[in-house]
Automatic annotation (TrEMBL):
<dbReference type="InterPro" id="IPR051453">
    <property type="entry name" value="MBL_Glyoxalase_II"/>
</dbReference>
<dbReference type="InterPro" id="IPR036866">
    <property type="entry name" value="RibonucZ/Hydroxyglut_hydro"/>
</dbReference>
<dbReference type="GO" id="GO:0016787">
    <property type="term" value="F:hydrolase activity"/>
</dbReference>
<dbReference type="GO" id="GO:0046872">
    <property type="term" value="F:metal ion binding"/>
</dbReference>
<protein>
    <submittedName>
        <fullName>MBL fold metallo-hydrolase</fullName>
    </submittedName>
</protein>
<keyword id="KW-0479">Metal-binding</keyword>
<keyword id="KW-0378">Hydrolase</keyword>
<feature type="domain" description="Metallo-beta-lactamase">
    <location>
        <begin position="12"/>
        <end position="192"/>
    </location>
</feature>
<keyword id="KW-0862">Zinc</keyword>
<dbReference type="InterPro" id="IPR001279">
    <property type="entry name" value="Metallo-B-lactamas"/>
</dbReference>
<dbReference type="Pfam" id="PF00753">
    <property type="entry name" value="Lactamase_B"/>
</dbReference>
Protein backbone atom coordinates (compact mmCIF):
# COMPACT_ATOMS: atom_id res chain seq x y z
CA UNK A 1 0.00 0.00 0.00
CA UNK A 2 1.30 3.46 -0.94
CA UNK A 3 0.33 7.03 -0.15
CA UNK A 4 1.03 10.29 -1.95
CA UNK A 5 0.88 13.82 -0.57
CA UNK A 6 -0.35 16.53 -2.92
CA UNK A 7 -0.35 20.10 -1.47
CA UNK A 8 -3.01 22.15 -3.24
CA UNK A 9 -4.20 25.75 -3.48
CA UNK A 10 -2.95 28.94 -1.82
CA UNK A 11 -3.16 27.37 1.64
CA UNK A 12 -1.24 24.30 0.44
CA UNK A 13 -3.83 21.95 1.86
CA UNK A 14 -2.62 18.36 1.71
CA UNK A 15 -4.67 16.03 -0.41
CA UNK A 16 -3.62 12.41 0.07
CA UNK A 17 -4.07 9.53 -2.32
CA UNK A 18 -3.82 6.08 -0.76
CA UNK A 19 -3.47 3.15 -3.16
CA UNK A 20 -3.21 -0.62 -2.84
CA UNK A 21 -1.58 -3.34 -4.93
CA UNK A 22 -4.77 -3.73 -6.96
CA UNK A 23 -4.40 -0.11 -8.15
CA UNK A 24 -7.47 0.98 -6.19
CA UNK A 25 -7.25 4.24 -4.27
CA UNK A 26 -8.93 6.47 -1.73
CA UNK A 27 -8.77 10.28 -2.04
CA UNK A 28 -8.53 12.37 1.13
CA UNK A 29 -9.47 16.08 1.27
CA UNK A 30 -9.48 17.31 -2.36
CA UNK A 31 -9.14 20.96 -1.41
CA UNK A 32 -8.43 22.65 -4.73
CA UNK A 33 -6.89 22.10 -8.16
CA UNK A 34 -8.98 19.13 -9.20
CA UNK A 35 -7.02 18.81 -12.44
CA UNK A 36 -3.85 17.95 -10.50
CA UNK A 37 -5.63 15.24 -8.54
CA UNK A 38 -7.21 13.75 -11.64
CA UNK A 39 -3.95 13.89 -13.57
CA UNK A 40 -2.03 12.07 -10.84
CA UNK A 41 -4.64 9.33 -10.59
CA UNK A 42 -4.80 8.85 -14.33
CA UNK A 43 -1.02 8.88 -14.72
CA UNK A 44 -0.70 6.17 -12.08
CA UNK A 45 -3.64 4.27 -13.64
CA UNK A 46 -5.48 4.10 -10.34
CA UNK A 47 -9.13 3.28 -9.76
CA UNK A 48 -10.65 5.59 -7.10
CA UNK A 49 -13.26 4.13 -4.77
CA UNK A 50 -14.23 7.10 -2.59
CA UNK A 51 -13.39 10.53 -1.23
CA UNK A 52 -12.91 10.72 2.54
CA UNK A 53 -13.15 14.15 4.16
CA UNK A 54 -11.52 14.87 7.50
CA UNK A 55 -13.72 17.95 7.88
CA UNK A 56 -15.60 20.46 5.76
CA UNK A 57 -13.60 23.68 5.80
CA UNK A 58 -13.44 25.23 2.33
CA UNK A 59 -9.76 24.55 1.79
CA UNK A 60 -10.33 20.81 2.22
CA UNK A 61 -13.42 20.46 0.01
CA UNK A 62 -13.07 22.93 -2.86
CA UNK A 63 -12.38 20.34 -5.56
CA UNK A 64 -14.75 17.71 -4.19
CA UNK A 65 -17.55 17.98 -6.73
CA UNK A 66 -15.26 18.01 -9.74
CA UNK A 67 -13.27 15.02 -8.50
CA UNK A 68 -16.19 12.83 -7.41
CA UNK A 69 -18.18 13.65 -10.56
CA UNK A 70 -15.23 12.81 -12.81
CA UNK A 71 -14.66 9.42 -11.20
CA UNK A 72 -18.30 8.81 -10.20
CA UNK A 73 -17.44 7.99 -6.58
CA UNK A 74 -19.08 8.81 -3.24
CA UNK A 75 -17.91 11.32 -0.64
CA UNK A 76 -17.88 10.60 3.10
CA UNK A 77 -18.35 13.31 5.77
CA UNK A 78 -19.25 13.31 9.47
CA UNK A 79 -22.89 14.06 10.20
CA UNK A 80 -22.03 17.17 12.22
CA UNK A 81 -20.63 18.83 9.11
CA UNK A 82 -22.86 17.38 6.40
CA UNK A 83 -24.60 20.74 5.94
CA UNK A 84 -21.27 22.57 5.71
CA UNK A 85 -20.72 21.32 2.18
CA UNK A 86 -23.75 23.31 1.06
CA UNK A 87 -23.26 26.45 3.16
CA UNK A 88 -20.45 29.02 2.53
CA UNK A 89 -21.05 30.56 5.95
CA UNK A 90 -20.34 27.24 7.68
CA UNK A 91 -17.45 26.00 5.51
CA UNK A 92 -15.65 29.33 5.81
CA UNK A 93 -15.55 30.31 2.15
CA UNK A 94 -17.87 33.27 2.78
CA UNK A 95 -15.38 34.67 5.29
CA UNK A 96 -12.07 33.87 3.58
CA UNK A 97 -12.63 33.44 -0.15
CA UNK A 98 -13.49 37.00 -1.24
CA UNK A 99 -16.52 36.07 -3.33
CA UNK A 100 -15.45 32.57 -4.38
CA UNK A 101 -18.13 30.79 -2.40
CA UNK A 102 -18.00 27.03 -1.97
CA UNK A 103 -21.41 25.39 -2.40
CA UNK A 104 -21.28 21.67 -3.03
CA UNK A 105 -23.67 18.78 -3.44
CA UNK A 106 -24.52 16.73 -0.35
CA UNK A 107 -22.23 13.88 0.57
CA UNK A 108 -23.35 10.42 -0.48
CA UNK A 109 -22.18 8.82 2.77
CA UNK A 110 -22.73 10.27 6.25
CA UNK A 111 -20.50 9.10 9.09
CA UNK A 112 -21.65 8.87 12.69
CA UNK A 113 -19.91 7.43 15.73
CA UNK A 114 -16.54 5.76 15.85
CA UNK A 115 -16.46 2.62 13.78
CA UNK A 116 -14.58 0.30 11.48
CA UNK A 117 -14.94 1.77 8.02
CA UNK A 118 -14.47 -0.63 5.12
CA UNK A 119 -14.28 0.55 1.51
CA UNK A 120 -13.28 -2.20 -0.88
CA UNK A 121 -10.15 -3.79 0.56
CA UNK A 122 -9.36 -0.68 2.63
CA UNK A 123 -10.16 -0.84 6.33
CA UNK A 124 -9.93 2.23 8.59
CA UNK A 125 -10.68 2.93 12.21
CA UNK A 126 -12.74 6.10 12.29
CA UNK A 127 -11.90 8.38 15.21
CA UNK A 128 -14.04 11.38 16.13
CA UNK A 129 -11.49 14.15 16.78
CA UNK A 130 -13.44 17.40 17.27
CA UNK A 131 -11.98 20.69 18.38
CA UNK A 132 -10.72 22.27 15.19
CA UNK A 133 -14.27 21.81 13.97
CA UNK A 134 -17.19 19.88 15.48
CA UNK A 135 -17.20 17.11 12.88
CA UNK A 136 -13.47 16.60 12.46
CA UNK A 137 -12.53 12.95 12.08
CA UNK A 138 -9.28 11.03 11.66
CA UNK A 139 -8.85 7.86 9.62
CA UNK A 140 -6.46 5.31 11.12
CA UNK A 141 -4.99 2.65 8.86
CA UNK A 142 -3.74 0.35 11.58
CA UNK A 143 -2.10 -2.22 9.32
CA UNK A 144 0.25 0.41 7.88
CA UNK A 145 0.64 2.64 10.93
CA UNK A 146 -0.87 5.70 9.23
CA UNK A 147 -3.38 8.24 10.45
CA UNK A 148 -4.98 10.89 8.25
CA UNK A 149 -5.58 13.58 10.86
CA UNK A 150 -6.78 16.59 8.88
CA UNK A 151 -6.26 19.83 10.82
CA UNK A 152 -6.15 18.24 14.28
CA UNK A 153 -2.39 17.75 14.69
CA UNK A 154 0.50 19.18 12.69
CA UNK A 155 4.26 18.92 12.90
CA UNK A 156 5.06 20.98 16.00
CA UNK A 157 1.63 22.60 15.95
CA UNK A 158 -2.10 21.95 16.37
CA UNK A 159 -5.25 23.01 14.55
CA UNK A 160 -6.67 26.47 15.08
CA UNK A 161 -9.79 26.74 17.21
CA UNK A 162 -10.91 30.31 16.58
CA UNK A 163 -13.28 29.42 13.74
CA UNK A 164 -17.01 28.66 14.22
CA UNK A 165 -17.45 25.45 16.19
CA UNK A 166 -13.82 25.38 17.33
CA UNK A 167 -12.98 24.47 20.91
CA UNK A 168 -9.41 24.41 22.24
CA UNK A 169 -10.02 22.14 25.22
CA UNK A 170 -11.93 19.71 23.05
CA UNK A 171 -9.11 19.69 20.50
CA UNK A 172 -6.52 18.91 23.15
CA UNK A 173 -8.64 16.08 24.49
CA UNK A 174 -8.99 14.67 20.99
CA UNK A 175 -5.26 14.76 20.44
CA UNK A 176 -4.39 13.15 23.76
CA UNK A 177 -7.17 10.55 23.78
CA UNK A 178 -7.24 9.52 20.13
CA UNK A 179 -3.83 10.28 18.64
CA UNK A 180 -1.16 10.21 21.32
CA UNK A 181 -2.40 6.80 22.46
CA UNK A 182 -1.45 5.29 19.09
CA UNK A 183 1.88 3.46 18.63
CA UNK A 184 4.73 5.94 18.79
CA UNK A 185 5.93 5.17 15.27
CA UNK A 186 2.53 5.97 13.74
CA UNK A 187 2.91 8.30 10.77
CA UNK A 188 0.69 11.39 10.99
CA UNK A 189 -0.52 12.68 7.62
CA UNK A 190 -1.67 16.20 8.46
CA UNK A 191 -3.88 18.61 6.57
CA UNK A 192 -1.07 21.12 6.12
CA UNK A 193 2.71 20.96 6.25
CA UNK A 194 5.10 18.04 6.46
CA UNK A 195 4.48 14.50 7.62
CA UNK A 196 5.32 13.74 11.24
CA UNK A 197 5.05 10.90 13.76
CA UNK A 198 3.37 10.48 17.12
CA UNK A 199 6.69 10.19 18.97
CA UNK A 200 8.05 13.34 17.33
CA UNK A 201 5.02 15.32 18.47
CA UNK A 202 5.12 13.85 21.96
CA UNK A 203 8.73 14.98 22.27
CA UNK A 204 8.83 18.30 20.41
CA UNK A 205 5.34 19.79 19.94
CA UNK A 206 5.27 22.90 22.17
CA UNK A 207 1.46 22.99 22.22
CA UNK A 208 1.24 19.57 23.85
CA UNK A 209 3.69 20.09 26.67
CA UNK A 210 2.07 20.56 30.05
CA UNK A 211 -1.49 19.78 28.98
Amino acid sequence: MKWYQLPLGPLQTNCYILSNDAQECIIFDPGEEAAKIIQYIQTKKLNPLAVLLTHAHFDHIGALDEVRDFFEIPAYIHEKEAKWLLDPALNGSQLFMAGELVRLKPAEKILANEQELKIGSFSFKLFETPGHSPGSVSYYLEEKGLIFSGDVLFKESIGRTDLPGGNHDQLMKSIHKQLLTLPEDTIVLSGHGPVTTIIDEMESNPFLNGF
